[in-house]
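target protein:
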Amino acid sequence: MIPALAQRPESTPAAPWVAVSHTHSESLEQHTQQLRDWDLRYDQLDAGRFDGRFTDVRLEGLQIFVEATSRRVRQRGQLMNGSLGIGSMLHGDGMLGLNGMRCDAGSLLLCSATEIDVCTPPDCLLVGLVVDAEQLLETAQSLGALDPQFLRVSMQAVTPPPAVLARWRQVLLHAVDVAVRHTARLDEPGVRRRLRDDLLLTLIDAMSGASNEDVAQPPDQRKRIVDHACELMLSRPDEPPTLLEVCRRVGASPRKLGYCFQDTFGVSPGRYIKTIRLNAVRRELSRTEDPKMSVYDAAARWGFWHFGHFSADYKKLFAELPSETLSRGRAPRAA
């Protein structure tokens, strides 16, 4: 089913009650910009050329999405106000990180609009939907199937019975397939209603099928250490703190800090801060409106003083030279 989606490069004309779009991006910036109604920032954490695909289906009261990303990526930000995002990783080259927790393909990921912090592995395929949080809770409670605890934590991962999770995925992918390839079937209100009800019922079944012990608690000490360290690392981009200074400020040994970063992002603290600063340079180069800005200006602003090392690190991470990013970013304005 997924390969068929990848063959549709443009938005699909549809009736007013359904909107379908599919995009293919060869840079992280392009991929982020086409995420409609989501306020998310992506940072690439491993080396290699990025390739991303995003299918967006809007039905009455629902958004369904299928997202494929080739590189390890940290996603931070918010969904639409008052919404709840539910997702599941179909496959990926490693574990997925959610709020400091490590999740696999058997997990159901729940994120409220207040906060999203997800680290996806390379070659990751995510599927999910975004719904109105209160409407979902009211529907679930009317069935006596869901405790309000699922909305008390902004991010959590639960583990439903495999067969129940598989059923929800099957219904979701079927809905995407119908919307993308057989849009005319949705002309009938009854078909749309059954499709929407199937999605909600199988979702509620999956959520309620998880045991109470699976419901995650608020971020633990490991996540707080990582968040504090990241804040310190980016507080002075032109003069980044040393690892010793970060360890002292967060109250953790280098080994403990390393464990925390490896569990959360799959990389060491030193590598993480370098990649985040390289991502920041890339965003500047791809979005600048200053015709006089040079690659060196952006690099120096983020604490890269050895230009030769910077260019080599940049090319290794993004599979292109910083000058190529700058040229491509300016190309639409020159057209």
Observations:
- The chain has twelve helices and twelve strands.
